[in-house]
Specification:
heterodimer, A: about 500 residues, mainly alpha, 21 helices, B: about 40 residues, 1 helix
């Protein structure tokens, strides 16, 4: 175990350096609430690419892909996970330019949903999106606190408070501009640190031939790219990730932050490749861990440790210098995601404030955005200190995303889909997913319903996620076909405006 | 039937992924430097 003092010192120095960078960069760039939550057309190719890579690459890449490799199907599962992480970027390559063209002055997913579908679907998507982002943020802080506790015995509250506090300072002051700037620096450090960690680990473990022998001895299916269990896992996890990322406000913010359409396409294209590679490389360590340390893969066991397979391997087989490199990598990963989510949660609520408050000034909106950043950060820090694992909630949030993704986004292309149609499609899709979801809390709640308990099918993640996505998609198509609604998509640009301009005559045409 | 990767295939796979990450790093760094007018 490395020294607690060394790890804490490294943590504080890293956090302080990025806090100063973020404050310095944003000090002369926050003129209005638009700068704080949108940073419209400000990021060139490099910054757009970098922020798209580092915003999604949280400390989770050292946890869940490795868990997939160790416990859910070896290299086949890791490949599926990597495809799943790059898929949303490819979808946004098409969606992003469409969103910018239809809603040139937009900010958030929820303001689009309100204008396109009306208040009922808006409330549903607002809750789903905030729930997902909050769980993501809490999972990040829980992941890093658990990792530093395992590696160096750092108390969880100290890690959570330090990271949450420092990131809050620069994100609360500099908003999205600070987040994108620090993301750029973080990407330039994350990529080489991951390479150094991987190469250092390969040599520390005796080279690829030795690693191969150790892993095959432990379980030959771990290195079978056609292993059915792994491919099956990869398929459902790809749907889960796609659904979650399509309701993630972070991407909507960056769609508007990019300088132009081509910058946006370029950024998402490069991020798709980078995400695939980074997740694949990180996931390989879960596979490798099985060959070197005792990884318990039975989720029912009290000793289950596949969820921290990478860190178990790190603790037992890596030299101290390499452990410190990984600690630095983990810190950068968690910072880049935390600042993104702090600002995304604040922005999604801030864009709705003009409707709730009576013609608020720009100063009021900026202060509100900062206050919301503080509230979100404090809540996430609290949860991360109290929670042991938020993985179950994460999967529930993913399921919500899988059920709403197609209904919500279909309105960007079709004039026929209606608010009632997409809401009912999402709810039925979600119900199908919940019936199959292997989640003890959900299962207990469903079993308590009269007449439902005995009819419940065997839980299965594949059926849950595929069911939610397919049923909600099919119902969206059917309800659009049956509907006589004809929403004028040009209304979106007429009703959604910048926040630092006087509001026009909004939302008077009624929802269909 | 188990189709386990051979030691050579595994080595090629691992080093290819590592080199591609290096390539993404160099490319992203180059684009950022170009944006900043450094290149």
């Amino acid at each position: 175990m490395v020294s607690e003092t060394v790890v804490l010192s490294l943590t504080v120095v890293t956090l302080a350096a990025f806090t100063v960078s973020g404050l310095w960069y944003s000090s002369s760039r926050i003129g209005s609430v638009e700068d704080f939550i949108s940073a419209r057309n400000s990021a060139g190719r490099g910054m757009t690419t970098a922020t798209l890579i580092s915003s999604v690459m949280g400390v989770w890449i050292l946890l869940t892909p490795a868990e997939a490799g160790a416990a859910f199907g070896g290299i086949a599962a890791v490949a599926g996970y990597a495809v799943g992480e790059s898929l949303p970027m490819l979808v946004y390559m098409k969606l992003g330019p469409r969103i910018r063209a239809l809603i040139p002055e937009g900010h958030s997913l929820t303001e689009y949903v309100l204008a396109r579908y009306g208040p009922a679907m808006y409330v549903f998507v607002l809750v789903v999106s905030l729930f997902y982002m909050f769980i993501f943020l809490s999972a990040e802080l829980t992941g890093i606190t658990s990792a530093l506790q395992l590696i160096a015995g750092v108390p969880r509250w100290q890690t959570a408070t330090l990271i949450g506090g420092f990131v809050l300072v620069y994100t609360g002051y500099g908003g999205l501009r600070a987040s994108i700037f620090t993301d750029t620096l973080q990407t330039l450090l994350i990529l080489p640190l991951l390479v150094v960690s991987a190469v250092g680990a390969i040599f520390a473990l005796g080279g690829t031939a030795t690693i191969h022998r150790q892993v095959v001895t432990a379980d030959p299916t771990l290195l079978d790219p056609t292993f059915f269990t792994g491919l099956r896992f990869g398929f459902w996890v790809a749907i889960a990730i796609l659904g979650a990322e399509l309701i993630n406000q972070s991407w909507w913010q960056r769609i508007y932050a990019a300088r132009d359409q081509e910058t946006l396409r370029h950024g998402f294209r490069t991020a798709a490749l980078a995400n695939f590679l980074l997740v694949f490389l990180a996931g390989l360590f879960g596979v490798i861990a099985r060959g070197y340390v005792d990884i318990v893969t039975d989720p029912a066991s009290e000793a289950y440790n596949a969820s921290i397979a990478f860190f178990v391997l790190l603790n037992e087989a890596f030299p101290e210098w390499l452990v410190l490199v990984v600690v630095l990598l983990a810190l950068l990963l968690v910072m880049s995601t935390a600042d993104t989510l702090f600002n995304a949660m604040a922005s999604i609520v801030t864009t709705d404030l003009p409707r709730l408050l009576n013609d608020p000034s720009d100063r009021t909106l900026t202060l509100s955005a900062r206050a919301l950043t503080v509230v979100g950060a404090l809540a996430a820090i609290y949860v991360s200190v109290r929670a042991r694992s938020v993985l179950r909630l994460f999967l529930l949030a993913d399921l919500l995303g899988a059920a709403v993704m197609v209904p919500v986004l279909s309105g960007l292309y079709s004039e026929q889909v209606s608010g009632a149609g997409v809401l009912s499609s999402s709810i039925v899709g979600l119900a199908v997913g919940l019936v199959y979801l292997p989640n003890q809390t959900v299962r207990s709640a469903l079993t308590a319903l009269p007449g439902v308990g005995s009819a419940l099918p065997t839980p299965d993640f594949l059926y849950a996620f595929v069911g939610a996505a397919v049923v909600s998609t099919a119902l969206t198509l059917i309800t659009a076909r049956l509907s006589d609604a004809a929403f004028d998509l040009d209304r979106l640009s007429r009703e959604i405006h910048r926040l630092d301009e006087p509001a026009a005559d909004d939302g008077e045409e009624g929802w269909e | 039937m188990i189709a386990t990767l051979s030691a050579t295939s595994f080595a090629v796979l691992v080093w290819t992924v590592v080199l591609l990450v290096v390539a993404v790093l160099v490319y992203t760094g180059y684009v950022i430097a170009t944006d900043a007018g450094l290149v």
